[in-house]
Design goal:
Sigma 54-interacting transcriptional regulator; Sigma_54_int; alpha/beta; five-stranded parallel β-sheet; P-loop_NTPase
Length: about 475
Protein backbone atom coordinates (compact mmCIF):
# COMPACT_ATOMS: atom_id res chain seq x y z
CA UNK A 1 0.00 0.00 0.00
CA UNK A 2 1.36 3.40 -0.98
CA UNK A 3 -0.11 6.62 0.36
CA UNK A 4 1.13 9.62 -1.59
CA UNK A 5 0.38 12.24 1.09
CA UNK A 6 0.51 11.17 4.71
CA UNK A 7 -2.82 11.85 6.38
CA UNK A 8 -2.75 13.23 9.91
CA UNK A 9 -6.41 12.66 10.83
CA UNK A 10 -8.97 10.00 10.04
CA UNK A 11 -10.85 12.46 7.83
CA UNK A 12 -7.75 13.07 5.70
CA UNK A 13 -7.11 9.33 5.54
CA UNK A 14 -10.61 8.67 4.16
CA UNK A 15 -9.90 11.12 1.32
CA UNK A 16 -7.00 9.04 0.00
CA UNK A 17 -7.66 6.58 -2.87
CA UNK A 18 -6.81 3.56 -0.72
CA UNK A 19 -9.48 4.40 1.86
CA UNK A 20 -12.13 6.01 -0.36
CA UNK A 21 -15.63 4.84 0.52
CA UNK A 22 -14.64 3.51 3.96
CA UNK A 23 -16.46 4.43 7.16
CA UNK A 24 -15.57 3.97 10.83
CA UNK A 25 -16.50 0.56 12.25
CA UNK A 26 -17.31 -0.75 8.77
CA UNK A 27 -15.87 -4.16 9.67
CA UNK A 28 -13.58 -4.28 6.66
CA UNK A 29 -10.42 -5.51 8.37
CA UNK A 30 -7.24 -6.39 6.51
CA UNK A 31 -5.40 -8.76 8.83
CA UNK A 32 -1.64 -8.94 9.08
CA UNK A 33 -1.70 -12.42 7.53
CA UNK A 34 -3.66 -11.03 4.56
CA UNK A 35 -1.18 -8.18 4.18
CA UNK A 36 1.79 -10.58 4.21
CA UNK A 37 0.06 -12.88 1.73
CA UNK A 38 -0.68 -10.04 -0.71
CA UNK A 39 2.89 -8.73 -0.66
CA UNK A 40 4.32 -12.24 -0.89
CA UNK A 41 2.11 -12.99 -3.89
CA UNK A 42 3.31 -9.82 -5.60
CA UNK A 43 6.97 -10.70 -4.97
CA UNK A 44 6.50 -14.26 -6.26
CA UNK A 45 4.89 -13.04 -9.48
CA UNK A 46 7.66 -10.47 -9.99
CA UNK A 47 10.39 -13.05 -9.30
CA UNK A 48 11.85 -10.94 -6.48
CA UNK A 49 14.18 -12.39 -3.85
CA UNK A 50 12.09 -13.20 -0.80
CA UNK A 51 14.64 -13.53 1.99
CA UNK A 52 17.93 -11.79 1.15
CA UNK A 53 20.92 -13.18 3.02
CA UNK A 54 19.33 -16.57 3.74
CA UNK A 55 21.57 -19.08 1.94
CA UNK A 56 21.06 -22.81 1.37
CA UNK A 57 17.31 -23.06 1.98
CA UNK A 58 16.00 -22.47 -1.55
CA UNK A 59 14.80 -26.06 -2.04
CA UNK A 60 13.96 -26.98 1.55
CA UNK A 61 12.97 -24.40 4.15
CA UNK A 62 11.84 -21.47 1.99
CA UNK A 63 9.19 -23.41 -0.02
CA UNK A 64 7.65 -24.66 3.25
CA UNK A 65 7.80 -21.16 4.71
CA UNK A 66 6.14 -19.67 1.63
CA UNK A 67 3.36 -22.26 1.86
CA UNK A 68 2.71 -21.36 5.50
CA UNK A 69 2.58 -17.65 4.71
CA UNK A 70 0.28 -18.15 1.74
CA UNK A 71 -1.97 -20.23 3.97
CA UNK A 72 -2.05 -17.37 6.53
CA UNK A 73 -0.65 -19.64 9.23
CA UNK A 74 1.37 -19.01 12.34
CA UNK A 75 4.47 -21.24 12.30
CA UNK A 76 7.50 -22.42 14.21
CA UNK A 77 11.06 -22.83 12.93
CA UNK A 78 12.56 -25.89 14.58
CA UNK A 79 16.31 -26.41 14.32
CA UNK A 80 19.68 -26.51 16.05
CA UNK A 81 21.58 -23.38 16.96
CA UNK A 82 23.15 -21.29 14.22
CA UNK A 83 20.66 -22.21 11.48
CA UNK A 84 19.44 -18.67 10.64
CA UNK A 85 16.09 -19.04 12.44
CA UNK A 86 16.10 -15.52 13.87
CA UNK A 87 17.29 -14.05 10.56
CA UNK A 88 14.35 -15.65 8.77
CA UNK A 89 11.83 -14.39 11.31
CA UNK A 90 13.16 -10.84 11.05
CA UNK A 91 13.16 -11.03 7.25
CA UNK A 92 9.39 -11.56 7.20
CA UNK A 93 8.97 -7.88 8.06
CA UNK A 94 9.92 -7.14 4.44
CA UNK A 95 6.58 -8.70 3.48
CA UNK A 96 4.69 -6.04 5.42
CA UNK A 97 3.55 -2.74 3.90
CA UNK A 98 6.15 0.06 4.19
CA UNK A 99 3.88 1.76 6.75
CA UNK A 100 0.32 1.61 8.05
CA UNK A 101 -1.90 4.14 9.85
CA UNK A 102 -2.62 3.65 13.55
CA UNK A 103 -4.40 5.70 16.18
CA UNK A 104 -2.07 8.30 17.68
CA UNK A 105 -1.88 8.44 21.45
CA UNK A 106 -3.12 4.89 22.07
CA UNK A 107 -1.04 2.49 24.15
CA UNK A 108 -1.16 -0.19 21.49
CA UNK A 109 -1.16 0.19 17.68
CA UNK A 110 -4.77 0.11 16.53
CA UNK A 111 -6.61 0.38 13.22
CA UNK A 112 -8.15 3.89 12.98
CA UNK A 113 -11.28 2.52 11.33
CA UNK A 114 -11.80 -0.71 13.27
CA UNK A 115 -9.93 -0.54 16.59
CA UNK A 116 -9.88 -3.69 18.72
CA UNK A 117 -8.73 -2.02 21.94
CA UNK A 118 -11.11 -0.28 24.33
CA UNK A 119 -8.90 2.81 24.34
CA UNK A 120 -8.87 2.99 20.55
CA UNK A 121 -12.65 2.62 20.32
CA UNK A 122 -13.12 5.33 22.91
CA UNK A 123 -10.79 7.72 21.03
CA UNK A 124 -12.58 7.04 17.72
CA UNK A 125 -15.99 7.71 19.27
CA UNK A 126 -14.71 10.87 20.97
CA UNK A 127 -12.88 12.44 17.99
CA UNK A 128 -14.66 11.03 14.95
CA UNK A 129 -13.09 12.25 11.70
CA UNK A 130 -10.69 14.44 13.68
CA UNK A 131 -9.11 11.35 15.22
CA UNK A 132 -5.32 11.89 15.07
CA UNK A 133 -3.34 9.14 13.38
CA UNK A 134 0.32 8.32 12.96
CA UNK A 135 2.16 6.15 10.47
CA UNK A 136 3.85 3.01 11.76
CA UNK A 137 6.84 1.78 9.66
CA UNK A 138 7.34 -1.92 9.09
CA UNK A 139 10.47 -2.03 11.24
CA UNK A 140 8.40 -1.03 14.29
CA UNK A 141 5.78 -3.68 13.58
CA UNK A 142 8.10 -6.52 14.55
CA UNK A 143 8.38 -7.39 18.25
CA UNK A 144 10.76 -10.14 19.34
CA UNK A 145 11.10 -11.80 22.73
CA UNK A 146 13.76 -14.28 23.79
CA UNK A 147 11.98 -16.82 25.96
CA UNK A 148 13.48 -17.51 29.36
CA UNK A 149 11.99 -19.40 32.32
CA UNK A 150 11.45 -16.15 34.25
CA UNK A 151 9.19 -14.57 31.60
CA UNK A 152 5.71 -13.98 33.02
CA UNK A 153 2.24 -13.54 31.60
CA UNK A 154 2.50 -9.89 32.58
CA UNK A 155 5.62 -9.49 30.42
CA UNK A 156 3.87 -10.83 27.33
CA UNK A 157 0.20 -9.91 27.82
CA UNK A 158 0.12 -7.25 30.51
CA UNK A 159 -1.00 -6.63 34.06
CA UNK A 160 -3.62 -4.67 35.93
CA UNK A 161 -2.46 -1.13 36.67
CA UNK A 162 -4.34 0.18 39.76
CA UNK A 163 -3.03 3.73 39.27
CA UNK A 164 -4.29 3.76 35.68
CA UNK A 165 -7.66 2.41 36.82
CA UNK A 166 -7.94 5.15 39.45
CA UNK A 167 -6.97 7.85 36.97
CA UNK A 168 -9.57 6.64 34.43
CA UNK A 169 -12.20 5.91 37.06
CA UNK A 170 -12.64 2.30 35.89
CA UNK A 171 -12.74 -1.03 37.69
CA UNK A 172 -9.68 -3.27 37.80
CA UNK A 173 -11.48 -5.70 35.49
CA UNK A 174 -11.81 -3.09 32.75
CA UNK A 175 -9.39 -3.65 29.88
CA UNK A 176 -8.59 0.07 29.92
CA UNK A 177 -6.92 -0.39 33.32
CA UNK A 178 -4.30 -2.72 31.87
CA UNK A 179 -0.67 -1.94 31.35
CA UNK A 180 -0.06 -3.79 28.08
CA UNK A 181 2.77 -6.25 27.57
CA UNK A 182 4.71 -7.06 24.43
CA UNK A 183 1.98 -9.03 22.67
CA UNK A 184 -0.70 -6.28 22.62
CA UNK A 185 1.97 -3.75 21.64
CA UNK A 186 2.66 -5.95 18.61
CA UNK A 187 -0.93 -5.52 17.40
CA UNK A 188 -1.08 -5.04 13.61
CA UNK A 189 2.37 -6.62 13.35
CA UNK A 190 4.49 -9.72 13.92
CA UNK A 191 5.29 -11.12 17.35
CA UNK A 192 8.24 -13.53 17.48
CA UNK A 193 9.19 -15.78 20.39
CA UNK A 194 12.66 -17.29 20.23
CA UNK A 195 13.39 -20.56 22.09
CA UNK A 196 9.68 -21.13 22.74
CA UNK A 197 10.17 -24.27 24.86
CA UNK A 198 11.90 -22.21 27.56
CA UNK A 199 8.63 -20.43 28.40
CA UNK A 200 6.85 -21.66 31.50
CA UNK A 201 3.75 -23.77 30.65
CA UNK A 202 1.32 -21.22 32.13
CA UNK A 203 2.79 -18.51 29.90
CA UNK A 204 2.43 -20.75 26.85
CA UNK A 205 -1.22 -21.35 27.81
CA UNK A 206 -1.78 -17.59 27.95
CA UNK A 207 -0.34 -17.29 24.46
CA UNK A 208 -2.61 -19.80 22.76
CA UNK A 209 -5.64 -18.68 24.74
CA UNK A 210 -5.33 -15.06 23.70
CA UNK A 211 -4.66 -16.02 20.08
CA UNK A 212 -7.47 -18.52 19.66
CA UNK A 213 -10.18 -17.32 22.03
CA UNK A 214 -9.04 -13.71 22.32
CA UNK A 215 -9.27 -13.67 26.11
CA UNK A 216 -6.99 -14.15 29.09
CA UNK A 217 -7.32 -13.88 32.85
CA UNK A 218 -5.16 -11.33 34.63
CA UNK A 219 -5.23 -11.76 38.41
CA UNK A 220 -8.67 -13.33 38.20
CA UNK A 221 -10.14 -10.70 35.89
CA UNK A 222 -11.22 -11.93 32.43
CA UNK A 223 -9.71 -9.63 29.81
CA UNK A 224 -10.73 -9.84 26.16
CA UNK A 225 -8.22 -8.78 23.49
CA UNK A 226 -8.97 -9.74 19.89
CA UNK A 227 -5.53 -8.88 18.60
CA UNK A 228 -4.44 -8.78 14.96
CA UNK A 229 -1.02 -10.41 15.28
CA UNK A 230 0.99 -12.90 13.27
CA UNK A 231 2.70 -15.14 15.80
CA UNK A 232 5.95 -16.86 14.80
CA UNK A 233 8.24 -19.02 16.91
CA UNK A 234 11.64 -20.64 16.91
CA UNK A 235 12.86 -23.52 19.05
CA UNK A 236 15.69 -26.02 19.35
CA UNK A 237 14.67 -29.71 19.16
CA UNK A 238 16.91 -30.36 22.15
CA UNK A 239 14.64 -28.15 24.24
CA UNK A 240 11.87 -30.73 24.13
CA UNK A 241 13.85 -33.02 26.42
CA UNK A 242 16.70 -30.99 27.92
CA UNK A 243 15.30 -27.68 29.15
CA UNK A 244 11.59 -27.47 28.51
CA UNK A 245 8.63 -28.55 26.46
CA UNK A 246 6.11 -26.91 24.20
CA UNK A 247 2.70 -27.60 25.72
CA UNK A 248 0.50 -29.75 23.50
CA UNK A 249 -2.41 -27.27 23.06
CA UNK A 250 -0.02 -24.56 21.86
CA UNK A 251 1.84 -26.94 19.57
CA UNK A 252 -1.51 -28.02 18.14
CA UNK A 253 -2.45 -24.42 17.39
CA UNK A 254 0.76 -23.67 15.47
CA UNK A 255 -0.04 -24.03 11.80
CA UNK A 256 3.26 -25.33 10.42
CA UNK A 257 6.39 -26.81 11.96
CA UNK A 258 9.30 -26.05 9.62
CA UNK A 259 12.63 -27.80 10.15
CA UNK A 260 15.82 -25.88 9.46
CA UNK A 261 19.22 -27.47 8.85
CA UNK A 262 22.92 -26.78 8.45
CA UNK A 263 24.41 -26.20 4.96
CA UNK A 264 24.22 -29.41 2.94
CA UNK A 265 27.57 -28.90 1.24
CA UNK A 266 30.79 -27.01 1.85
CA UNK A 267 30.16 -24.56 -0.99
CA UNK A 268 26.95 -23.27 0.62
CA UNK A 269 28.70 -23.03 3.96
CA UNK A 270 31.52 -21.01 2.40
CA UNK A 271 28.98 -18.61 0.89
CA UNK A 272 27.35 -18.08 4.31
CA UNK A 273 30.69 -17.57 6.05
CA UNK A 274 31.90 -15.12 3.40
CA UNK A 275 28.65 -13.19 3.76
CA UNK A 276 28.67 -13.04 7.56
CA UNK A 277 32.35 -12.88 8.57
CA UNK A 278 33.64 -9.40 9.39
CA UNK A 279 37.32 -8.96 8.52
CA UNK A 280 39.67 -6.34 7.17
CA UNK A 281 39.45 -6.24 3.35
CA UNK A 282 43.23 -6.13 3.12
CA UNK A 283 43.46 -9.73 4.39
CA UNK A 284 43.53 -12.37 1.65
CA UNK A 285 41.86 -15.72 2.27
CA UNK A 286 42.92 -18.17 -0.47
CA UNK A 287 40.12 -20.47 -1.70
CA UNK A 288 41.74 -23.59 -0.26
CA UNK A 289 41.96 -21.91 3.17
CA UNK A 290 38.32 -20.75 3.02
CA UNK A 291 37.33 -24.33 2.20
CA UNK A 292 39.47 -25.66 5.06
CA UNK A 293 37.83 -23.31 7.55
CA UNK A 294 34.36 -24.40 6.41
CA UNK A 295 35.27 -28.08 6.36
CA UNK A 296 36.21 -27.84 10.05
CA UNK A 297 32.52 -27.26 10.91
CA UNK A 298 31.46 -30.21 8.73
CA UNK A 299 34.02 -32.50 10.36
CA UNK A 300 33.00 -31.37 13.84
CA UNK A 301 29.35 -32.18 13.11
CA UNK A 302 30.37 -35.74 12.19
CA UNK A 303 32.84 -36.26 15.03
CA UNK A 304 31.64 -38.79 17.59
CA UNK A 305 33.19 -36.80 20.43
CA UNK A 306 30.96 -33.80 19.71
CA UNK A 307 27.37 -33.73 20.99
CA UNK A 308 25.11 -33.99 17.95
CA UNK A 309 21.97 -32.98 19.86
CA UNK A 310 23.58 -29.63 20.62
CA UNK A 311 24.90 -29.24 17.07
CA UNK A 312 27.82 -27.25 15.73
CA UNK A 313 26.66 -23.75 14.90
CA UNK A 314 27.40 -22.05 11.61
CA UNK A 315 28.92 -19.38 13.83
CA UNK A 316 31.96 -21.64 14.23
CA UNK A 317 33.40 -21.10 10.73
CA UNK A 318 32.30 -17.46 10.82
CA UNK A 319 34.15 -16.80 14.07
CA UNK A 320 37.12 -18.88 12.96
CA UNK A 321 37.38 -16.95 9.70
CA UNK A 322 37.42 -13.67 11.62
CA UNK A 323 40.06 -14.81 14.12
CA UNK A 324 42.27 -16.43 11.46
CA UNK A 325 42.13 -13.25 9.38
CA UNK A 326 42.94 -11.18 12.46
CA UNK A 327 45.97 -13.36 13.22
CA UNK A 328 47.18 -12.99 9.62
CA UNK A 329 46.77 -9.23 9.96
CA UNK A 330 48.71 -9.23 13.24
CA UNK A 331 51.51 -11.20 11.61
CA UNK A 332 51.57 -8.69 8.79
CA UNK A 333 51.69 -5.70 11.13
CA UNK A 334 54.56 -7.09 13.20
CA UNK A 335 56.56 -8.74 10.39
CA UNK A 336 55.78 -6.61 7.37
CA UNK A 337 54.55 -9.55 5.28
CA UNK A 338 51.39 -9.50 3.17
CA UNK A 339 48.32 -10.52 5.24
CA UNK A 340 47.37 -13.93 3.81
CA UNK A 341 45.64 -16.56 5.94
CA UNK A 342 47.70 -19.72 6.58
CA UNK A 343 47.14 -23.00 8.40
CA UNK A 344 48.99 -21.59 11.41
CA UNK A 345 46.38 -18.82 11.59
CA UNK A 346 43.66 -21.47 11.79
CA UNK A 347 45.43 -23.07 14.74
CA UNK A 348 45.65 -19.62 16.31
CA UNK A 349 41.86 -19.55 16.06
CA UNK A 350 41.35 -22.51 18.39
CA UNK A 351 39.37 -20.35 20.87
CA UNK A 352 36.79 -19.78 18.12
CA UNK A 353 36.38 -23.57 17.80
CA UNK A 354 36.43 -24.88 21.34
CA UNK A 355 33.68 -22.53 22.51
CA UNK A 356 31.33 -23.69 19.76
CA UNK A 357 31.43 -27.44 20.50
CA UNK A 358 29.60 -29.31 23.25
CA UNK A 359 31.62 -32.46 23.90
CA UNK A 360 30.52 -35.97 24.78
CA UNK A 361 32.21 -37.85 27.64
CA UNK A 362 35.01 -39.13 25.39
CA UNK A 363 35.68 -35.63 24.12
CA UNK A 364 35.76 -34.20 27.63
CA UNK A 365 38.37 -36.79 28.58
CA UNK A 366 40.58 -35.85 25.63
CA UNK A 367 40.11 -32.13 26.12
CA UNK A 368 38.54 -29.46 23.91
CA UNK A 369 41.86 -28.23 22.46
CA UNK A 370 42.94 -31.74 21.46
CA UNK A 371 39.57 -32.49 19.86
CA UNK A 372 39.72 -29.19 17.95
CA UNK A 373 43.25 -29.92 16.69
CA UNK A 374 42.14 -33.35 15.55
CA UNK A 375 39.15 -31.84 13.74
CA UNK A 376 41.48 -29.38 11.94
CA UNK A 377 43.70 -32.29 10.88
CA UNK A 378 40.74 -34.25 9.50
CA UNK A 379 39.40 -31.17 7.70
CA UNK A 380 42.78 -30.48 6.07
CA UNK A 381 42.99 -34.09 4.91
CA UNK A 382 39.46 -33.97 3.48
CA UNK A 383 40.00 -30.71 1.57
CA UNK A 384 43.38 -31.86 0.27
CA UNK A 385 41.90 -35.18 -0.89
CA UNK A 386 39.04 -33.43 -2.70
CA UNK A 387 41.23 -30.90 -4.46
CA UNK A 388 44.63 -32.54 -4.90
CA UNK A 389 44.26 -36.19 -3.89
CA UNK A 390 45.67 -37.36 -7.23
CA UNK A 391 48.90 -35.32 -6.92
CA UNK A 392 52.11 -37.36 -6.90
CA UNK A 393 53.79 -36.76 -3.55
CA UNK A 394 55.88 -39.92 -3.38
CA UNK A 395 59.22 -38.10 -3.61
CA UNK A 396 58.16 -35.69 -0.86
CA UNK A 397 57.02 -38.53 1.41
CA UNK A 398 60.23 -40.48 0.82
CA UNK A 399 62.28 -37.45 1.90
CA UNK A 400 60.50 -37.44 5.25
CA UNK A 401 60.70 -41.23 5.58
CA UNK A 402 64.49 -40.92 5.30
CA UNK A 403 64.43 -39.19 8.68
CA UNK A 404 64.23 -35.56 7.59
CA UNK A 405 62.01 -33.07 9.40
CA UNK A 406 60.78 -29.63 8.35
CA UNK A 407 59.63 -26.72 10.45
CA UNK A 408 57.50 -24.34 8.46
CA UNK A 409 58.65 -20.72 9.07
CA UNK A 410 55.99 -18.86 11.03
CA UNK A 411 57.39 -15.33 10.73
CA UNK A 412 59.50 -13.30 8.38
CA UNK A 413 59.04 -12.64 4.70
CA UNK A 414 57.02 -14.98 2.46
CA UNK A 415 59.91 -15.22 0.02
CA UNK A 416 62.10 -16.54 2.81
CA UNK A 417 59.44 -19.13 3.67
CA UNK A 418 59.26 -20.23 0.04
CA UNK A 419 63.03 -20.54 -0.13
CA UNK A 420 62.91 -22.74 2.95
CA UNK A 421 60.31 -25.02 1.33
CA UNK A 422 62.75 -25.76 -1.51
CA UNK A 423 64.48 -28.04 0.96
CA UNK A 424 61.54 -30.46 0.65
CA UNK A 425 61.53 -32.13 -2.80
CA UNK A 426 58.46 -31.26 -4.87
CA UNK A 427 56.84 -29.02 -2.26
CA UNK A 428 57.50 -25.74 -4.07
CA UNK A 429 56.02 -27.01 -7.36
CA UNK A 430 52.98 -28.49 -5.65
CA UNK A 431 52.43 -25.26 -3.70
CA UNK A 432 52.50 -23.26 -6.94
CA UNK A 433 49.84 -25.58 -8.38
CA UNK A 434 47.65 -25.29 -5.29
CA UNK A 435 48.02 -21.51 -5.03
CA UNK A 436 47.24 -20.84 -8.69
CA UNK A 437 48.83 -17.45 -8.04
CA UNK A 438 52.19 -15.77 -8.51
CA UNK A 439 51.90 -14.05 -5.15
CA UNK A 440 54.60 -15.27 -2.77
CA UNK A 441 52.40 -14.96 0.31
CA UNK A 442 49.67 -17.10 -1.26
CA UNK A 443 52.24 -19.69 -2.34
CA UNK A 444 53.66 -19.81 1.16
CA UNK A 445 50.15 -20.39 2.48
CA UNK A 446 49.66 -23.14 -0.10
CA UNK A 447 52.90 -24.85 0.91
CA UNK A 448 51.83 -25.05 4.55
CA UNK A 449 48.39 -26.26 3.45
CA UNK A 450 49.98 -29.08 1.43
CA UNK A 451 51.96 -30.26 4.45
CA UNK A 452 48.89 -30.07 6.66
CA UNK A 453 46.82 -31.92 4.06
CA UNK A 454 49.37 -34.74 3.93
CA UNK A 455 49.35 -34.80 7.71
CA UNK A 456 45.55 -35.03 7.60
CA UNK A 457 45.82 -38.02 5.26
CA UNK A 458 48.31 -39.61 7.68
CA UNK A 459 51.17 -39.42 5.20
CA UNK A 460 53.09 -37.17 7.61
CA UNK A 461 53.14 -36.58 11.35
CA UNK A 462 53.08 -33.20 13.04
CA UNK A 463 54.27 -31.73 16.32
CA UNK A 464 53.42 -28.02 16.50
CA UNK A 465 54.99 -26.58 13.28
CA UNK A 466 57.39 -29.53 12.86
CA UNK A 467 56.45 -31.99 10.10
CA UNK A 468 58.03 -35.43 9.95
CA UNK A 469 57.45 -38.95 8.64
CA UNK A 470 54.29 -40.67 9.92
CA UNK A 471 54.50 -42.70 13.08
CA UNK A 472 55.41 -46.39 12.47
CA UNK A 473 51.92 -47.61 13.35
CA UNK A 474 50.35 -45.07 10.99
CA UNK A 475 52.73 -46.07 8.21
CA UNK A 476 51.73 -49.71 8.76
CA UNK A 477 48.03 -48.80 8.52
CA UNK A 478 48.62 -46.95 5.24
CA UNK A 479 50.42 -49.96 3.85
CA UNK A 480 47.63 -52.28 4.86
CA UNK A 481 43.86 -52.21 4.62
CA UNK A 482 43.59 -48.57 5.86
CA UNK A 483 45.45 -47.15 2.91
Amino acid sequence: MTVTAKARTLGELLQTPEYAGRTPFDGRVRLVQDEVRENLTRKLRAGEELFPGVVGYDDTVIPQLVNALLARQNFILLGLRGQAKSRILRAITELLDPEVPVIAGADMPDDPLNPVGAEGRHLLEAHGLELPIRWLPRAERYVEKLATPDVTVADLVGDVDPIKAARLGTSLGDVRSMHFGLLPRANRGIFAVNELADLAPKVQVALFNILQEGDVQIKGYPIRLELDVMLVFSANPEDYTARGKIVTPLKDRIGSEIRTHYPTDVGLGMAITEQEAVRDPSVTVPPFMAELIEEIAFQAREDGRVDKLSGVSQRLPISLMEVAAANAERRSLTGGDAPVVRVSDVYAGLPAITGKMELEYEGELKGADNVARDVIRKAAGAVYARRYGSANTRELEKWFENGNVFRFPQGGDSREALQATQEVPGLTDLAAEVAASADDAVRASAAEFVLEGLYGRKKLSRAEELYAAPEPETRQQRGGRWN
